[in-house]
Write a structure and sequence with these properties.
Elements lengths: L10 H13 L4 H13 L12 H6 L11 H13 L1
Pfam family, one: DUF6364
Protein name: Antitoxin
Organism: Taishania pollutisoli
């Protein structure tokens, strides 16, 4: 069931958003609704909020050694690349 919502938004933002919606052939309401859904989508406990869908897909695809030092590994690889 759809319900009407009144928002107060800066005029320039509204104009740009309407233009964007037209270019994407979607309604402004649809864009805002989908954005809000993405914001409130529940994530599993312990999930990293910055994970992309690809990272989520790859999670668990390999096991790292327990003594793996990510910071040292990054430093070593960057040193090899740039020094």
């Amino acid at each position: 069931m759809n319900t009407k919502l009144t928002l107060t938004i800066e005029q320039s933002v509204i104009e740009k958003a309407k233009k964007y919606a037209r270019e994407k052939e979607r309604s402004l309401s649809d864009l805002i609704e989908n954005y809000m859904k993405a914001l409130i989508e529940e994530e599993p406990k312990g999930a990293n909020k910055k994970e992309t869908p690809i990272v989520k897909l790859l999670r668990g695809s390999f096991k790292m050694p327990k003594n793996f030092d990510a910071k040292k590994e990054l430093t070593d690889r960057l040193s090899e690349k740039y020094l």
